[in-house]
Input
Amino acid sequence: MRIAIISDVHANLEAFKSVLTDIETVGVDKIFCLGDTIGYGPNPEASVTLLRDRAIPSVIGNHEKAVLDFRFLRGFNPVARESLQKTIKMLSEDTLRFLGGLDTSIVAHDCRFVHGFPLDSPMTYLFQVSEAKLRRTFVKMPERCCFVGHTHLLECVEWNGDIAVTSEMTRRTYRLNPDRAYIINVGSVGQPRDGDNNAKYSIFDTDENSLEVRFVPYDIAAVAEKIIARGLPKSHALRLW
Ligand code: ZN
Output
């Protein structure tokens, strides 16, 4: 089975559509989304609508949490908070209700899907986690692979039952060891922070035991213009380049 994993679309409809087109071109059996479909970008409502139209199962991200419960807004830096306050006004009641129904984790096909960190945290960043916590998490995680987003960085943590080794990932296909467990960060569709401005997503092939990291170009200029036109923080437009 080929599973596409997308994360952190961040209301970037152009990047989202380009990734979906790429997924159609290469062919997969299933798509999962790791949350943060909204925030930063100019098209939160349309991005969630597209997610729903395609019936892509999704977990909740910290940005969804923030528009549903204002107490979570406090955890964001002032610029992200400003963009989230504008995002709330762009979302319909129906979309807010849909976001409120998202779970913190999904388990399917011996994989776990979560926004931040397993077992089910939308808030914890992979880079914050100590070696000891990684170890404890791998010991208690029943699934072999957990896919996360949240940091917008491509990373792989491999657990051999004794030590956890973290490495950066880039555009290529990785062969996974069937005897090892993994936490894999698939990066971001809509706001990459890994130094390359293409949209990122990954395809996990459960038969081949492989993970393909894909880079997808999209119309960055169009999105950057819309961010500025909608009065969202300019830094979110500049960051896309
Ligand atoms: Zn994010």
Observations:
- The chain has a mean pLDDT of 97.
- Residues 13-26 form the longest helix (14 residues).
- Residues 8, 10, 36, 150, 152 surround zinc ion (CB under 6 Å).
- DSSP finds eight helices and eleven strands in the chain.
